[in-house]
Specification:
By secondary structure, this protein is an alpha/beta fold. The protein has helices at about 5-10, 20-25, 60-70, 85-95, 105-120, 155-160, and strands at about 50, 55, 75-80, 95-100, 125, 140-145, 160-170, 175-185, 185-195. The protein has a 7-stranded mixed β-sheet. A two-stranded antiparallel sheet has the order 1-2.
Length: about 200
């Protein structure tokens, strides 16, 4: 299935309307972020295992996260849970600067290689506790979290700039993708969709 076909079937027909997001999803070569044994399934509408009990999210979920962040192109974005590096690559098409943090060193190294091969060497991939964010690079206009937390980590909320947006899955067995906006009155949350993510783990191995 060609990129325009899968973008139309999996994203646009399911309600993703942000043209910048659709173009970014069509441009990023997802197969470069998928392990060789399952590369033929790179564009399936499904999450795929990438090792170390982690997955690459299905394309529709990545698109939903990116659309909810409402990026315009000049933002600094934090990607929590680098995993394969795929979401960081899509974010790099949508924002000016992407900092990504991964707790598993082997995955971080693999993601750096994939990002470089795909043409996104400018994405900075760090190893550390994603729930703590990257305070030395804060504030961020947007934060995307690729693992489910019981509640939004306070450290990530603190690293949002005024007007910033944080998207993360909340819950354990029943998870909801949640958008949190930093407003003058405080943090405002809204639910986006039912999802299923691996749990957010605090601390580095």
């Amino acid at each position: 299935m060609s990129a325009p076909d899968w973008v139309e079937r999996q994203l646009r027909r399911r309600g993703v309307v942000d043209q910048r997001v659709l173009e970014a999803m069509a441009k990023v070569p997802r197969e470069l972020f998928v392990p060789e044994p399952v590369r033929s399934h790179a564009y399936d509408d499904a999450a795929l295992a990438i090792g170390y009990d982690q997955t690459i999210s299905q394309p529709y979920v990545v698109a939903c996260v990116c659309e909810a962040l409402a990026l315009t192109g000049d933002e600094r974005v934090l990607d929590v849970g680098t995993g394969s590096g795929y979401q960081a690559a899509v974010l790099a098409e949508l924002a000016a600067e992407v900092v990504s943090i991964e707790r598993v060193p082997e995955l971080a190294a693999r993601a750096r290689e994939a990002l470089t091969a795909a043409g996104y060497a400018q994405v900075e991939v760090l190893v550390g506790d994603g729930s703590a964010g990257v305070p030395e690079r804060a504030p961020f206009a947007a934060i995307a979290v690729g693992a489910a937390a019981r509640r939004p980590p306070p450290s990530l909320l603190e690293q949002l700039e005024p007007g910033g947006r944080l998207v993360l899955p909340v819950g354990r067995f029943r998870q909801r993708l949640v958008l949190i906006e930093r407003t003058p009155e405080g943090f405002a949350a809204s639910a986006l969709a039912d999802v299923r993510f691996v749990p957010l783990v605090e601390g580095v191995r």
